[in-house]
Specification:
Number of helices: 20
Number of strands: 4
Structural class: mainly alpha
Shape: elongated
Distance between the termini: 69 Å
Number of domains: 3
Radius of gyration: 24 Å
Order of helices and strands: HHHHHHHHHHHHHHEHEEHEHHHH
Strand order of the largest sheet: 2-1-3-4
């Protein structure tokens, strides 16, 4: 299979499954083929195509993380890793979120002792590896998807590091993720991880017969698919807003949550019913997708919500040039109308406190 002769390669690939079953060979056989390749050799491309396609027949999430890291960095197999993640065959968590972070964020890449050791062990091609803005953009795109990565896995402090950068690649991604997915309580000053951020559940999501109504235009999922996923997760779908409704989901396109649209009739009706004593949780499309992904959030206290809102407000009124990174976040926070969100979160926290007392 490693012959320079293409006919010999074709003969070997046709004969192999007649002699050994895929199970007998195991993923280690195909991984070894790949790790014997040199990117400079012509034979590498055909061997990579064959070995990668055979590897994909196994459970990719059962492969060794170190092998997957090697495949993610080897020039000829990078595209296969990207394909497997996009297809949902490979979970980012299998390799480790910190690994993807170092490929996505150049300061982490430059400071990584693991990467220094990897380059020393893996030949000339590894020594020539350099940070790639294009690949970083792909991985940050994965990080933007709440179905792939939870807030807890990304980390509030890591996102804030990216917000403080001047490069749009980092700053725009991080500010968007913070605005879309973090609640006011998450901004409360803490010594450890941000409050309310959680990791995804390991098992299937159970919505426990909670009812969902959709309004606005979704950005990442169709209403039909969203309703189907609610039903598949033991939830129910309501066509209209009523006092018995549990969740009103507002689409992210032109959303008042993000300061890019006005409240529609369903949104206003839910607010009116809440003022009369109903307990309808008005959530964004992104928060809904977090629920479907099984991300669990601990209930925020009224104090945490208040402290987070205060920190957000200080961010809004803080002096500084509009073109600075933090200045851009200030504009996003202003447009997203955090005082309204804070008031709603404080009401939810008080309700939660009453229920638990």
């Amino acid at each position: 299979m490693l012959s320079d002769s293409e006919p010999a390669f074709d003969f070997a690939t046709k004969l192999l499954p007649k002699v050994h079953t895929l199970k007998d060979l195991g993923p280690a056989f195909f991984a070894t083929l790949l790790q014997k390749l040199n990117p400079e050799e012509d034979r590498s491309k055909r061997v990579v195509k064959y070995a990668a396609e055979e590897l994909a027949k196994f459970d990719l999430n059962a492969l060794a993380p170190e092998l997957l890291k090697w495949l993610a960095l080897f020039p000829f197999t990078q595209t296969y890793i990207n394909l497997w993640v996009n297809q949902g065959k490979l979970k980012l968590q299998t390799v480790g979120i910190d690994f993807w972070k170092l490929i996505a964020f150049q300061p982490d890449w430059d400071a990584s002792p693991w990467l220094v050791e990897f380059k020393a062990k893996n030949g000339q091609w590894a020594k020539e590896l350099s940070f790639d803005d294009g690949r970083a953009g792909v991985f940050l795109g994965w990080f933007a998807d709440v179905r792939k990565v939870s807030n807890g896995e990304l980390g509030f402090s890591w996102l804030m590091k990216l917000v403080a950068r001047s490069e749009p690649l980092y700053h725009d991604f991080a500010s968007d993720r913070l605005i879309r997915t973090f609640l006011p309580a998450d901004f409360a000053p803490t010594e450890g991880a941000a409050q309310g951020t959680g990791a995804s559940a390991s098992g299937p999501v159970d919505l426990a017969k909670a009812s969902f109504c959709f309004t606005g235009t979704p950005a990442n999922i169709t209403v039909k698919d969203a309703e189907a996923q609610v039903k598949a997760a033991n939830g129910t779908v309501a066509a209209n807003v009523s006092p018995k409704l549990h969740y009103l989901v507002v689409g992210d396109t032109g959303s008042p949550f993000l300061g890019t649209g006005q409240k529609g009739a369903k949104y206003l009706k839910a607010e009116e019913l809440n003022e009369k004593g109903a307990n309808i949780r008005i959530i964004s499309e992104t928060m809904f997708l977090q629920m479907l992904a099984g991300e669990k959030r601990s209930a925020a206290t009224t104090d945490a919500v208040g402290a987070g809102c205060e920190r957000l407000w200080q961010l809004v009124i803080a002096p500084g040039p509009a073109d600075a990174p933090v200045g851009a976040v200030r504009a996003r926070v202003r447009s997203a109308a955090p005082p309204g969100n804070c008031q709603e979160d404080q009401r939810q926290a008080r309700r939660s406190g009453l229920r638990n007392s």
